[in-house]
Amino acid sequence: MSLIPNGTFEIECNNCHKKHLFQANDSDFQENDRTEGKMGPKIPYNWEHEFTCDCENIISIDYSFVEYPENTLEDTDPDGNGFSVINEFQFESNDNG
Ligand SMILES: [Zn+2]
After folding, report:
1. N or C, which end of the chain has less CB nearby within 10 Å?
2. What is the CA radius of gyration of the chain?
3. What's the whole-model pTM score?
């Protein structure tokens, strides 16, 4: 993984409006099948996490992002059910040269 999440991911429960905060190291993004584009590998990542809010609402996070070209964030999609996104992670290059 050459892009790593940084900062925080903050969401709000759709039912009780309680805010939930995730640090970058709370996430667990997994690399999915890469495809070959004109500018090199195109790599999708995904993190799924489900938990129950204090109000019993089930919050299901399905957060994906795409690295393309290498070391460049092409797209993010903090999808899922039961919540609204307040603040997304930042994604930064992990390439130290
Ligand atoms: Zn709630």
Report:
1. C
2. 15
3. 0.92
